[in-house]
Amino acid sequence: MDFKNIVYAFACLSFAIVIGGAVYEHVAVVPRWSSAPPASLSMFQGKYGLNPTPFWKAIHPVTLLLLTATMILFWKTGSRPYLLITSIGYVVVLIITFAFFVPELIAVTGTAFSQKIDVFLAKRAKLWEALSLVRLLFLIVLAIVGFAGLTKTTPR
After folding, report:
1. Which of 25, 26, 115, 138 has the largest CB neighbor count within 10 A?
2. Total domain count for the chain?
3. Is the pTM higher than 0.85?
């Protein structure tokens, strides 16, 4: 295996880690905090509250860097369309994430603790969860496209 293929493999691995983090959050975290806000939001509050931000701030730039390097290395190969679709799709997802998902998540999870369930807040949380699952499915499709490009690495 040469250097170019190792870079491509790491790009795919990094993209898979993004998906793994999102799947974990949707299986273990999101159902808990979205179940009965604001009471269920206590997991984010206090000195030892859950803070996934460092993970996401680290993995997204690494993934973008690896995808960019892979596109440069494989530009003149059959992998180019697969890498373009994956990379452009990922950038679009990140733009939507930072424009909608992050601000909405901060607004919902930053709500002050209360024992009383806020029906409006619960509806916002469930909408966020549903839309985030759509985003996750889109990322999975992008990953499949990116992985498929691994088989097209020969020069054009």
Report:
1. 25
2. 1
3. yes
What is the 3-class SS of the chain, one letter each residue?
CCHHHHHHHHHHHHHHHHHHHHHHHHHHHHHHHCCCCCHHHHHHCCCCCCCCHHHHHHHHHHHHHHHHHHHHHCCCECCHHHHHHHHHHHHHHHHHHHHHHHHHHHHHHCCCCCCCCCHHHHHHHHHHHHHHHHHHHHHHHHHHHHHHHHHHCCEC
Structural domain of residue 143, as residue ranges? 3-152
Residue 33: what residue type? Answer: W
| Residue in 40, 34, 48, 56 with CA at minimum distance from that of residue 102 | 56
Residues 26-42 have pLDDT tens digits of 999 999 999 999 999 98
Residue type at 112 in one-letter notation = A
